[in-house]
Amino acid sequence: MLLNMADALAEWQQSITLRKIEINTVDFKQVKVVTDTFIFAVVQPTNAEAITVAQVDWSLKHYTVHTLSKLDMSSIIIYQDKEYKAIQVTAWGDYGYYEAVFEEVK
Fold first, then answer.
1. If we measure between CA atoms, which residue out of 29, 26, 31, 39 comes closest to residue 75?
2. Residue of 89, 11, 34, 2 whose CA lies nearest to 102
3. How far apart are CA 35 and CA 21, in angstroms?
């Protein structure tokens, strides 16, 4: 049996904005729908050795986020009034949380 590590996040969590963008077709036109949701997450600067993505712009800020909320490669967060896109996501579902590396959007 695997330990549920989700409770370990509770001490350091803060509220951040998770932005979902969907493109829908309405009357034969594409319409962008933006939905912002507040989630609780632990946010910390990313250790450069932890990034396994081949193409990374090192001139931008990167943060690692741990959360109970579902994240995927289309996830965008708003942190300290800046927008960040997911560049690496790991689903630790067996342990009860998600981990993602986010890169600042220019």
1. 39
2. 89
3. 6
Cα of first residue to Cα of last residue in the chain, in angstroms, is 43
As a whole number of angstroms, the distance between CA 91 and CA 51 comes to 15
Q: Which tokens go with 16?
A: 């951040």
CA 68 to chain CA mean position, Å = 11
Asked whether the beta carbons of 63 and 76 are under 8 A apart, the reply is no
* Domains of the chain (ranges, CATH numbers): 5-104 (2.40.10.270)
Q: How many Cβ atoms are within 10 Å of 58's Cβ, its own excluded?
A: 8
Q: What is the pTM of this model?
A: 0.83
Burial of 46 (0-12, 13-18, 19+ CB in 10 A): buried
pLDDT in tens, 17-41: 999 999 999 999 999 999 999 999 9
